[in-house]
Each structure stands twice: as C-alpha cells, then as structure tokens.
TrEMBL record:
This is C2 domain-containing protein. CDD domains: C2 (cd00030). SMART domains: C2 (SM00239). The keyword Coiled coil does not apply. Residues 1-109 form the C2 domain. Keywords: Repeat. Pfam families: C2, NPHP3_N. It comes from the Eukaryota. The keyword Cytoplasm does not apply. InterPro entries: C2_dom, C2_domain_sf, NPHP3-like_N, P-loop_NTPase.
C-alpha cells in the first residue's frame, strides 16, 4: 500500500534475539518492550518470562500525520527484576517514516534491528524484530475494535505511572529523613514492579482501577505544596502510607498476572473483593489523617487471607518463634546491595533445578546478620511472603541446640497458612510426644511432609537461619539438613548465615560441595 494513502501504521513487535543473561545472577530475562513517540509513552507489550529470545507479536496502532511521521520513535526492551526497578536492556531509535522505508526495502520479512545501549550495540548481537504495515481508514477502524479491548489496561497503566511519579516526588521530599526515605524507596520498587507487569494481564478489572485511584488521591494530597511541607510533622502517618503502598504494590503485581488469577480466583473471589475494599478504606482513612495532621493507629491491611488454625494448641506444643527485626540492625540502603540483590533473585527463582540453601559465609563482624535482617524486612514488606526467621546468636539465648530449630520452626510455619497448619496439627496429634522425638522424626513429620503435601500457589516460603556457627549442638541439624534437602519442595528457600573460620569446619564440610547449596563468601567491604 502506498504510504500516501495510509492513515495509520501497525507497528508489530515480533520478538527479540540474543538478549544477554542478567549480569549479576546470570539468569534468563523477564522482558517487555515499551514504545515511545517523542517523549510520550505509547504502550507496552506483555512481559515474557525466562527467555533470552522472547516472542511478543504485539501490535501498536499509530495514527499518521506529518508531525508524527518525522517524530522520533523508540522501542526499548526492559528487563523486569523481582525486587529492583526495571532496567533497560537496549533500544532502537528511528522515525515512522524511516521504519516504513526500511520495511519496503525488506518486503514482507521482519526487520532485524540492532539493540543499542548508551550508543553501543548490546553485547551478544541482540536484535529486535518488528514489522511496520500501513493501514487504510477502513483497516484502522477494524483494528480499533481490538484496541478498545486494551483500553482499560492502558488506563490502569497510565494511572500507575502517575502514582509512581507522585511517589518519586514524595521520596525526594524525605531524603533527609532516613527511616522514611528507606520506606519510600521500597514502596517505589514495589509500585514500579506492578507497573511493568500490568501488560501481562489478559483481562482487567474495574476494582483494581478503584484501588489505584484511592492510592493516587493520597499521593495527590501529599505532593501539593502544603502537603510536602507537612510530611516531616506527620512522620508516623507517612510511614503507614508508605508501608500500605508497598503491600498494595505487591498485591497489584500478583493480581494482574494471569497465572496468579488462574490459580487463586477459584478459591478467593470473595476474599479479593473484600481485600480491595479494605485497602481502599485504609487509604481513605490515612488520607484523612494526613489532611488533618493527626496520627491514629490504623490497622494496615495485608494481602494474604489465611483461615484460622488451632494455633494456641500448637503454640503450647511447638513454641513458635520469630526473629524480632525491630531490635536488629539492617543494612544501610547504600551498602551490601550486591549480596542482598543476589539473595533476593535466588529466593524468587523456584525452578526445580535450583539449589535449596543459600549459605552466606564470612568472618566475624562482616555484616552477615544485618544482611539477613535486610532480607527479612524486604520479604515481609509485601506481606505475601511467608518468612520464618530465627537468630541463634548469644545475644538471644544463653544456650542453643538443634532443638531450637526443630521445635520452633514448625510452630511458626503453622501460623502462616491454614493448610500447613492443618498438616502440622495432624502430626502433633498423631505423635503425642513429637516435641521430644528424635530430630530426624521431627524434621520428617513437621517440616518435610507438611510442606510437600500442600500445593503452594504463592511466593516462596523463606526460612532464615542466622549465626548457625553459634548453635552448640549442630551436628545432627547439619546431617538432617544435608540429607533432607532433596526431599524439600522447590518453593522452600533456606538462607543460612555462619562464620567460615577453622572452628566451623563441620559447616564448611557439610555445605561447601553440596549440590543443593549455593555458597557466597561475604567480604569485608560494604559494597559486596
């Protein structure tokens, strides 16, 4: 079709080739493509997971004009990280007119365009494959019908974009308040992850739009001139707003993914409806508190909806325990970023071939405990992650044995999910003296079997064990762990921290060459 007779253009992002593995963890990419006309975002493809050769076949419809034909166009491939903000893999820069000319030169074949980053070709000869087809007025009208189906998704994406922009403003206003700035950075990460994964959903729901609007109203108020001045005076309510934003960001991220909807919708339709309403009411209450400059203890809403379990009974038998991170120091936001990101990426990679234990080793006072505290805070911040954390340091108990782990972990797990709780409760009733049973029997009946019997549809179950080297009677714990790792489900992730001196040769011998243990030695530099 002659370009002079076309009123619109269909830019089809077909696929990418040879995308490089991620630099830090050497994993396959989770990637999507963003189209910009000038400086204006015009849409995104869906996110394709775990491949360096993603196929999108996504259509962008662009109405033509003299101005649009000569306007710069960019197609940018983004990598979606689990915890960190998305990163640019590479871009193609051109104009609509040049793309049409290039397409005529190659005929009906796809154009293979070199991806560039900072002006240089992306390593590994990465390409973006696209097609550009001119459309008549009638063809454009037909295509518009399909475009309408994506409108609600685009609206949500636009509103989330505005919300992220507002949060950046709020974060800037709190640079001098360390505690709030840290919360703001985490909230921004969770919202950014939600925004980049919106395009993966196949069907959008009006209720999510209402939730985003409720959050946006709060940040609209906070980013007014008067609102920004008020932030230091009402730190408590701002902290509550940021924490609730993190929870909602993670909720939206999971809700908009089709795989999550497919698994959970059948069981939790009414729960999700009530949860969204609870989120909305919570933000309205926080908005009112911020507006009036007063702080009321608002019960923040979590996402995971658990039924009650006979927790008191099991508490008496198993004595569950949590790591109290409020009394423990986390890493400064600008330190230990590499190892924290490495552990976080490893936690989320729950493929069956992945290793079950991440062993963080290092010398005394190298910061192992602060790293684990930071990981606990990151995992808990979304509320959807099941985190069991225990410290075995001398600052907590006078004497520590493997019994600390064998009796306390199952009771703590029982409180996170009713199905796990039911399985553990069954074991405690079938084996009346389970708390005094050999460690091997406790591991089998209270950890291995309950976790394998439950079909886990959510994010990983994370167990953090700090200062294993200070557990005096650890021989049997090490033996059972090493022998039982292959039996544990892939969604269980165990992070263990210990020293690596000669005194801990038994730990080194157990973990160093184990095929299911990922080992990382922490150096004395904060930039590890």
């Amino acid at each position: 079709m002659d370009s002079s007779t076309t009123t619109a253009v269909d830019i089809t992002v077909v696929s990418a080739e040879n995308l490089p593995l991620t630099k830090q963890s050497h994993r396959l990419r989770d990637s999507y493509v963003e189209l910009k006309i000038g400086a204006t975002p015009s849409g995104c493809t869906k996110t394709i997971l775990n491949t360096c050769s993603p196929v999108w076949n996504h259509h962008f419809l662009v109405d033509r004009s003299n101005e649009i034909d000569e306007c710069p166009i960019s197609l940018t491939v983004w990598h979606v990280a689990r915890i960190r903000p998305p990163r640019v893999v590479g871009s193609v820069h051109s104009s609509l007119q040049d793309l049409l000319q290039h397409q005529r030169a190659v005929g009906n074949a796809d154009m293979r365009l070199t991806l560039r980053l900072n002006g240089k070709p992306v390593r590994g000869n990465a390409y973006l494959c696209i097609r550009v087809v001119g459309m008549s007025l009638a063809e454009r009208a037909e295509a518009a019908r399909g475009e309408m189906l994506r409108n609600r998704q685009d609206i949500l994406q636009f509103r989330l974009s505005k919300l992220v922009e507002k949060l950046v403003i709020v974060k800037g206003a709190m640079d001098h308040v360390f505690e709030l700035n840290s919360h703001a950075k985490d909230a921004w990460k969770f919202l950014s992850a939600s925004l980049t994964l919106i395009s993966a959903q196949r069907e959008q729901d009006e209720r999510v739009l209402l939730l985003v609007d409720a959050i946006l109203e709060v940040y609209d108020l906070m980013t007014t001139v008067e609102g920004l001045k008020k932030i230091p005076a009402v730190q408590k309510v701002v902290e509550q707003i940021l924490k609730q934003t993190m929870v909602c960001g993670e909720f939206i991220r999971q809700y908009v993914q089709y795989e999550f909807l497919e698994r959970v919708w059948r069981r939790m339709t009414s729960d999700i409806e009530e949860k969204i309403q609870s989120f909305i009411q919570c933000f309205r209450s926080l908005k009112e508190q911020f507006s009036q400059g007063v702080t009321v203890e608002t019960l923040l809403v979590s996402f995971q909806a658990n039924d009650s379990v006979q927790y008191l009974y099991m508490k008496g038998v198993l004595n569950p325990v949590f790591m109290d991170t409020s009394s423990r120091t986390a890493c400064h936001p600008e330190s230990r970023r590499l190892v924290i990101h490495k552990i976080a990426d490893w936690i989320f990679d729950t493929s069956s071939a992945n290793k079950r234990v991440f062993w963080l080793q290092g010398g005394a006072r190298y910061g192992k405990s602060t790293v684990l505290t930071s990981i606990a805070n990151i995992m808990r911040v979304g509320i959807t992650y099941t985190v069991v954390a225990i410290g075995l340091t001398s600052h907590t108990w006078a004497k520590h044995t493997h019994a600390t782990v064998e009796q306390k972990y199952p009771g703590t797990l029982a409180g996170f999910d009713p199905r796990i709780g039911d399985e553990i409760e069954r074991a405690t009733k079938e084996h009346k003296n389970i708390a005094e049973a050999p460690f091997e029997m406790q591991f089998s009946n209270l950890i291995d079997k309950p976790l394998n019997r439950v079909a886990w549809d959510f994010e990983p179950i994370v167990i953090l064990i700090d200062a294993l080297d200070e557990c005096e009677d650890r021989a049997r714990l090490l033996q059972v762990l090493c022998e039982g790792l292959a039996l544990l489900p892939s969604h269980l992730r165990i992070v263990i921290a210990s020293r690596n001196s000669e005194k801990e040769s038994d730990i080194f011998g157990a973990f160093d060459k184990h095929t299911l243990v990922e080992s990382y030695e922490l150096s004395c530099t904060q930039y590890d």
